[in-house]
């Protein structure tokens, strides 16, 4: 270890000691009252937002689920069935030669 | 044990890792406080807002101790106030996976970090070091015993030199250096408290200590 390293370690050690030995101030009861006053002012708004948040997200989830069910049912009900589809294509193929003449 | 060996032991312990940390509130027995805290939080969540005053009463000194080490003395009240307001707002997200003192320590550390982050460096008062500070450094280096060393370290000059050196670091490096090198937290603990990745904290801790050593070397 070089003399510079040793000096640095000593200075670091002194700064760590200075940091840790800093006395902790005592905050009076008026400080705690101030915090509680802010919390009382904050609480109704926060509760209201929390309720609104839940309502909005719950409604959104229900709406999305409903939209998915509706879309799937519309697709299923409005699309031709497998046999109907084949029949239409066969009809088209039969009529094609007539137009070609 | 001779004074010399005590001094050597003290210096070799930098950074000291096995020390009582402010993450746990040592003034409260963990086993008996855990159930009480849980019940108290449940009631606060249930609408008994006034019970939050009990939480403040229990953990005020724990939070103030953490804040006091990180911000200027004239801002301690204000920042500690913000810590408890943030705790109240974040109460519904507190899962209980860590103890209340640990949870509050994280909020306190991040609130102090935000304090430095929102201040531009040029706005910070950068008091110049005087010949008295230089003398203090010489006396620290000349200290031959543990007693002399501790006396020098507890002088007002020591705090002023520390503040001066920390003011030259970025808020990120300052936060990590304070946690890892000054408080003595492990990288993992510091990462948990800051909500950063362990690798980020590890890299910053190395860089921050290097920067601090450079500052001290230039001062000397």
Summed up, what is this model?
Chain A has 101 residues and is mostly helical. Chain A has 3 helices and no strands.
Write up what this structure looks like:
The complex is a heterodimer of chains A (101) and B (220). Chain A is an all-alpha fold and 101 residues long. Chain A is built from three helices and no strands. The longest helix of chain A is centred in the middle third of the chain and has 50 residues, at 29-78. In chain A, 11% of the residues are buried. Chain B has 220 residues and is mostly helical. Helix content of chain B is 68%, strand content 0%. Chain B has helices at residues 3-12, 30-45, 52-68, 76-89, 100-117, 131-142, 146-153, 156-166, 171-183, 187-194, 198-219. Chain B is elongated, with a radius of gyration of 19 Å. Mean pLDDT of chain B is 82; it is low at 1-22 and 29-35. The interface between A and B is large, with 33 and 51 residues.
SSE blueprint and pairings:
The complex is a heterodimer of chains A (101) and B (220).
Chain A: H1 3-20, H2 29-78, H3 82-100
Chain B: H1 3-12, H2 30-45, H3 52-68, H4 76-89, H5 100-117, H6 131-142, H7 146-153, H8 156-166, H9 171-183, H10 187-194, H11 198-219
Helix pairs in contact in B: 3-4, 3-5, 4-5, 5-9, 6-8, 9-11, 10-11
Strand count, sense and barrel status of the largest sheet of chain B are:
none
| Radius of gyration of chain A, in angstroms, nearest whole number | 39 Å
Largest interface: A-B, 33 and 51 residues
- Net shape of chain B: elongated
Residues in β-strands, percent of chain B? under 5%
Protein traits:
heterodimer, A: 101 residues, mainly alpha, 3 helices, elongated, B: 220 residues, 11 helices, 68% helix
